[in-house]
From TrEMBL:
Domain Malic enzyme N-terminal: from-to ranges: 177-358
Domain Malic enzyme NAD-binding intervals: 368-621
Name of this chain's protein: Malic enzyme
Cofactor(s) required, per the database record: Mn(2+); Mg(2+)
Keywords tagged on the record: Metal-binding, NADP, Oxidoreductase
Entry binding sites for (S)-malate: R253, N508, N552
SUPFAM superfamilies xrefs: Aminoacid dehydrogenase-like, N-terminal domain, NAD(P)-binding Rossmann-fold domains
GO biological process: malate metabolic process
Binding site for a divalent metal cation: E343, D344, D367
Co-factor note (free text): Divalent metal cations. Prefers magnesium or manganese.
């Protein structure tokens, strides 16, 4: 037996720890075999080849890809070879190998006893049963009592509620994630409305600002300029091989807080926690990445606890080369169906990265596209309250960066679909103000390329207030990253010519919100229809309670990602963002409208995500961009059935 094991798991490719090793009866050297044992994981590979199947709609795929890449060079040779395999049922089976996983030839991990208690994927703490304690060498390592996961949850919530400072709650949640992953996700799913502001905006913003001081254990992959030329090797250092979603940042524009360099890692970590909790992607399939090319944040550069490279940001070719090496390594290591979400890059890189990799990789930019999709859904809901069609409204944005121009473009696209007017015409109903004032045609030459489509004929105006008075928008959207910019005068002006002014203050975290919920309601005498990127508590005004929704891309990206994965999509298409938006808007109930809410509550988010996923997957099949065949009949039920559940498993 020992000799057999030695032959199978050649030295250098396997790691043994703990006391026991068992092999599954399904083990075979020819196909990916996984054995799932009490506290034991085995996956392995030998001469395994993935069957290449033509999708039934390969010509559709070809034409969609052509349309997406314009007249650029053909990438179809590579795209048409999209592999179909792994079996979707297997895909979400915890710890089961897929072809994407089979990168390292042999890997064996065994955990029991003390190391089992220290392995966050398997640790259950006091919830290990008597039998499990006997079977896995846990006797004496735990106090005698055995408890349920529900009791553990109650205790943790009680402890968390005692912390007064949000950052303490954040740290307690991160500790839990590293101690007992299933309990972390169970807690987050069951208490999503209470805990979202802890692991996500606004608290994650403060966590990033103080990341160096609160840093305990690394939580993702750090790829810095030091790793140039070695990124593929670095990816192989990550313990999980079957990655389905990567969230990557370079830390240059973290929320509305600016350049936080390497400390931006809190964002990919937080976003991926939501992918698992809200979208049901299994945690081991998620990889947070921070690309560190330096920082221009002087305070951080001088901070003795700063964890990143102490140099000014690399730019130009050096920056592009590192990003390109990363993108190539990702595809080489995980295949073409791994989703890469760009997050919190600065404008000057975000648009270029999306344009460059959108035609060769499965990528999307959450700040441009995810935010656009969530806001469009909120606007469709708002029309139920204010009447009219999208094309009958006038939009004014403060902020012409990723979120502003991304939302504006998706609105124009939807308007043009609805009314059959060309998208160029639709754009004329949408106005943007940047730091220099209203974007108008006389500024066109000096504008960055992503602002040019919004340079309409109008005399120059250099303040938001004047722009509001002149354009008379029905809908005002803040995407500036600059707090307190929707002043009393601005909101009063909106309320002077709109019965129900729609005001969206999207910037995060709360400190950067263009105005608070209270300000929006008070300054409009309770008439505003308001939503914000970071959450606000309900407001009492004139004896009435006002509830506001959270227009945050967290509604979209987990379901979008799930839809892409279950369909085996190989590209993200704008129509998928519209499909996601439409699915979200459909989830708003009459009861929500009656409360003035533009979004359904987050407490339903897993159901919402399943609907978004199904709509996105449907679109992927329609466009011929899906590779996972046959197409499941009921995609909502299928999406739900694929979702990760954090309930403890029995290790017997
Ligand atoms: O992270 C959030 O809360 C939303 C977002 O993408 C951003 O503000 O950059
Ligand atoms: Mg973001």
């Amino acid at each position: 037996m020992l000799r057999l094991l030695w032959l199978l798991f050649k030295p250098g490719h396997c790691s043994f720890s703990g006391k026991r090793l068992a092999l599954s009866s399904t083990f075979s050297g020819q196909v990916p075999a996984t054995g799932l044992f009490p506290g034991v994981r085995v996956f392995c590979r030998s001469s395994y080849s993935v069957e290449v199947k033509e999708t039934s709609s390969s010509s559709k795929m070809e034409s969609t890809l052509k349309e997406m890449r314009g007249d650029g060079p053909s990438v179809l040779d590579m795209d048409a070879k999209s592999t179909v395999g792994g079996g979707v049922e297997d895909m979400y089976g915890e710890d089961q190998a897929t072809e994407d996983q089979l990168v390292t030839p042999w890997t064996v991990t065994v955990a029991s006893g003390y190391s089992l208690l220290r392995d966050p994927h398997y640790n259950k703490g006091l919830a290990f049963s008597e039998k499990e304690r006997d079977a896995h060498y846990l006797r004496g390592l735990l106090p005698p009592t055995c408890v349920t996961q529900e009791l553990q949850e109650r205790k943790l919530m009680q402890n968390l509620r005692q912390y007064q400072v949000p950052l303490q709650k954040y740290m307690a949640m991160m500790d839990l994630q590293e101690r007992n992953e299933r309990l972390f996700y169970k807690l987050l799913i069951d208490n999503v409305e209470e805990l979202l502001p802890v692991v996500y905006t606004p608290t994650v913003g403060e966590a990033c600002q103080k990341y160096g001081s609160i840093f305990r254990r690394p939580q993702g992959l750090y790829i810095s300029l030091k790793e140039k030329g070695k990124i593929l090797e670095v990816l192989k250092n990550w313990p999980e091989k079957s990655i389905q979603v990567i969230v990557v940042t370079d830390g240059e524009r973290i929320l509305g807080l600016g350049d936080l360099g390497c400390q931006g890692m809190g964002i990919p970590v937080g976003k991926l926690a939501l992918y698992s909790a809200l979208g049901g992607i299994r945690p081991s399939a998620c990889l947070p990445v921070t690309i560190d090319v330096g920082t221009n944040n002087e305070t951080l550069l001088k901070d003795e606890f700063y964890i990143g490279l102490r140099q000014k940001r690399a730019t130009g070719q050096e920056y592009r080369d590192l990003l390109h090496e990363f993108m190539c390594a990702v595809k080489q290591n995980y295949g073409e169906k791994v989703l890469v979400q760009f997050e919190d890059f600065a404008n000057h890189n975000a648009f270029d990265l999306l344009a460059k990799y959108g035609t060769t990789h499965l990528v999307f930019n959450d700040d441009i596209q995810g935010t656009a999709s969530v806001v469009l859904a909120g606007l469709v809901a708002a029309l139920k309250l204010i009447g009219g069609t999208l094309a009958e409204h006038t939009f004014l944005f403060l902020g012409a960066g990723e979120a502003g121009t991304g939302i504006a473009e998706l609105i124009a696209l939807e308007m043009s679909k609805q009314t059959k007017i060309p998208v160029e015409e639709a754009r004329k109903r949408i106005w943007l103000v940047d730091s220099k004032g209203l974007i108008v045609s006389s500024r066109k030459e000096s504008l960055q390329h992503f602002k040019k489509p919004w340079a309409h004929e109008h005399e120059p105006i250099n303040s938001l207030l004047e722009a509001v008075k002149s354009i008379k928008p029905t809908i005002l959207i803040g995407s500036s990253g600059a707090g307190k910019t929707f002043t009393k005068e601005v909101i009063e002006a909106m309320a002077s010519f709109n019965e129900k002014p729609v005001i969206l203050a999207l910037s995060n975290p709360t400190s950067q919100s263009e105005c608070t919920a209270e300000e929006a309601y008070k300054w409009s005498q309770g008439r505003a229809i308001f939503a914000s990127g970071s959450p606000f508590d309900p407001i009492e005004y004139n004896g009435k309670t006002y509830y506001s929704g959270q227009a945050n891309n967290a509604y979209i990206f987990p379901g979008l990602g799930l839809g892409l994965i279950i369909s085996g999509a190989i590209r993200v298409h704008d129509d998928m963002l519209l499909a996601a938006s439409e699915a979200l808007a459909k989830q708003v109930t009459q009861e929500n409208y009656d409360m003035g809410l533009l979004y359904p509550p987050f407490s339903n988010i897993r159901k919402i995500s399943a609907h978004i996923a199904a709509n996105v997957a449907t679109k992927a099949y329609e466009l011929g961009l899906a590779t996972r065949l046959p197409r499941p009949e009921n995609l909502v039920a299928y999406a739900e059935s694929c979702m990760y559940s954090p309930v403890y498993r029995s290790f017997r």
